[in-house]
Amino acid sequence: MKIIFAGTPEFAAVALAALHAAGFEIPLVLTQPDRPAGRGMQLHASAVKQFALAHNIPVAQPVSLKLDGKYPEVAQEAHALLRATPHDVMVVAAYGLILPQSVLDIPPRGCLNIHASLLPRWRGAAPIHRAIEAGDAETGVTIMQMELGLDTGPMLLMQRLPITADDTTASLHDKLAKLGGEMIVDALRKLERGELSATPQPEAGANYAAKISREEATLDFRQPAQELGCKVRAFNPFPGAMGVCNGTPVKFWQAEVLESSNQWQAGQVISANAHDGVVIACGKGALRVTELQKPGGKRLPAVEFIKGFPLEGACFD
Question: Could you give the C-alpha distances from 279 to 282, 285, 292, in angstroms and in order?
């Protein structure tokens, strides 16, 4: 089969690489326009674009696909390109643009989406972050037939993956990206043989995985340590969980949950030494932070961090 691929970040690039390695013909890739990044805010190509160009795959980067949107002429050109490109199916992974019905109707065999969640558990933009933040014991990948609703389409394939106690969004992302690449290859081969069946999603248990914002990063130590530990792992690598001590924001990159009596004020640093690390009292239990970072500094193990930023007896807001 010939595949048009639509995706943008590294998660999608892993799937594109798997399809390419499996020998599928990919006559066109859609990805988001280049974005400014880094200190110099220079334009950077997406991970998907970089892979496509490296393998001589044509790339299109429309800012919109909605004919009734802000850029109708751009959308019309994109529609014309899709219709003019011989293909059987479109594969979508973390593309970042809404596909209107007029696009969903173009591929003869529809649009398949690689979604990093056990649907309908987490629909939306940040299913990996939200699964860890919620303390889920497992997650996985769902290959879904796309429709207009937000991640509401029929499920074609699903595989489960445990979330370990030390998984961060970064580590879980890599596991799910690899799994998603393997599954979409399997799904397309089944589709070619006529062996792919669809199962409607149940509405029960559906949650919206809203995009992560920087405002969520600041921890409230009145919450239980278990919840805060999940946030630290969920917000690694972005935006980085944060506590404020004497007006200075301190990022927390790794942390462990400890049992503790309630004799300490929430946010109070119980200990900050080479033996115990940085232990902070919470609404219930305590958080031992093992990797920290101050503004403009490097991520450091707790034993190194406290040499330049003493925390013994301090209190986080």
Answer: 10, 10, 12
pLDDT recorded at residue 10:
97
Nearest 5°: CA angle at 270, between 264 and 276?
145
Distance, CA of 143 to CA of 134 (rounded, Å):
23
Report residue 277's pLDDT band, with 50, 70 and 90 as the boundaries.
Answer: confident
Q: What is the spatial distance between Cα 89 and Cα 191, in angstroms, rounded to a whole number? A: 10
Both tokens assigned to 241: 């969980």
CB proximity list for 212: less than 8 A, separation 6 or greater: 126, 129, 235, 238, 239
Over residues 183-192, the pLDDT tens digits come to 999 999 999 9
Please write the tens of the pLDDT for every residue from 153-165.
999 999 999 999 9
Is pLDDT larger for residue 213 or for residue 42? 213
CB 25 within 8 A of CB 12: no
**Contact yes or no for 307/272 (Cβ under 8 A):** no
In the chain, what are the domains? 2-209 (3.40.50.170), 214-308 (3.10.25.10)
CA distance 240 to 138: 22
Q: What is the dihedral of CA 222, 225, 227, 233, to 10 degrees?
A: 120
Whole-angstrom CA distances from 280 to 8, 149, 167, 245, 297 are: 39, 43, 21, 11, 21
- Per-residue pLDDT, averaged over 311-316, amounts to 92
